[in-house]
Amino acid sequence: MRYHQTCDGLRRRDMLKAGMLTAGGLTLSNYLQMAHAGQLQTGRADRAIFIELPGGPSHLDTFDLKPDAPDEFRGSFKPIATNVPGIQISEHLPKLANCADKFAILRGVSHTLAAHRLGREYVNTGSKPIPALEYPSYGAVVSKELSNNSDIPSMVAVPRAGQGPGFLGIRYAPLETNSQPSFGNPFSVRGISLANGIGIDEVERRQDLLRKLDRRFASLEKNDQLLEGLDQFGEQAYSMITSPRSREAFDISKEPESFARQFGEDSFGQSCMLSLRLVEAGVRLVSVQLGGWDTHQDNFTKLKTNNLPKLDAGLSGLLVGLEQRGLLESTAVFVTGEFGRTPKINQRSAEGGRDHYPRCMFMLMAGGAVRGGQVIGESDDTAAGPRHEGISPDDVAASFYYNLGIDPTLEYDTTTGRPITLVRDGSIVKQLFA
């Protein structure tokens, strides 16, 4: 399996519909007051899908085109109309254009971390990285805060997680598949699907032996977080490997071909379909990755021939599929890269490329209480920065948690007893839910 690597990030109603509101936040207490008064919808999602685009996708060539900017900024892609009047996106995202009413576009999202690793940690947690502490991923927090059945994992990462459980500890780490599904084939995950002819009786015999060993070693260290996490993993692995519901959820070959094809036949699209099956079965959060966005060279060829068609089919298939299954209102969807790309095209190749650029980027949100069919925030004439006040990754993280019914001002204690606020600097983006 090949994985991508990076280099080293009007009327008010009419204005909302056309995506003309600028960014804005509010405190949690004010937000809850407005929600109680019926001015805003309240979070109602109880599961989530987090789609990460490692490498940093170009905002100017996807969801924030600038057709009137000078040639050295706008590039060769043209905007097309969506099914929401007043909203345009890239011509290479036609399927997403046809379901734009199902998601909200956040433009003018801005931060200052231009390195891949730091940018990814930021957008995977909603907190700016600091050397002395590792913040937990969204999936780790969701695993801790939302109850889950023992016969299915709380969080699954396809193929790997962009961020670990941080100070919450290994007991909240995700199940990583380390591979991606392929069209029309059963998907086997080591530790869940029974391989090499091993039957349930053999698994139960081995589990009984492990329990005897566990009792012998339990007295050595009762308070160690690592041992506690590993013990939980052992119990959960046993529950999952003997659970028909869990094995059934991972088997994408159960889906009708007509349903599977709307996601596209590549591994990302099939991963999106797998994520739908997993949240439908009870997994609380699934993370999916589509890499290859680090387009310092040949930006336009790489995007139009590879990344954009994959994103277009996979994400549109997911949003439409969730709605078809009656799951969109209960599933929070969050799509982001670690940063945008430079507005000015470089000359590193014949057609040019775009470099790391955290000052301006896009994010997408859908599902739960999020109102689709709107653009929130705005960039300037060349998408070099927010036109007005920018939206921070912290703001979007606070909104994502709120959509799941999790208080973003919640405090946790680290293993050393240090109190840490879940989202320290973020404010809920009220327009998402208005």
Describe the structure.
By secondary structure, the protein is of the alpha/beta class. 32% of the residues lie in helices and 14% in strands. The chain is built from 13 helices and 16 strands. The strands form 5 sheets. It has an 8-stranded mixed sheet, sandwiched between helices. Strands 1-16 form a two-stranded antiparallel sheet. α9 packs antiparallel against α11 and α11 runs parallel beside α12. The longest helix is centred in the last third of the chain and has 26 residues, at 299-324. The two termini are 43 Å apart.
Radius of gyration: 22 Å
By CATH, the topology of the largest domain is Alkaline Phosphatase, subunit A
CATH superfamily placement of the largest domain:
Alkaline Phosphatase, subunit A
Number of helices: 13
Largest sheet: 8 strands, mixed
Quick recap:
The protein has 434 residues and is α/β, with parallel strands linked by helices. It has helices at 12-18, 28-36, 71-74, 94-97, 116-125, 138-145, 200-217, 225-241, 244-250, 257-261, 267-281, 299-324, 393-403, and strands spanning 25-26, 47-52, 79-81, 88-90, 103-109, 155-158, 175-176, 285-289, 331-336, 340-341, 356-357, 361-366, 374-376, 411-413, 419-421, 428-429. It has two domains: 12-183 and 251-433, Alkaline Phosphatase, subunit A (3-Layer(aba) Sandwich), CATH 3.40.720.10; 188-248.
List the main descriptive attributes of the protein structure presented here.
8-stranded mixed β-sheet; alpha/beta; 434 residues; Alkaline Phosphatase, subunit A
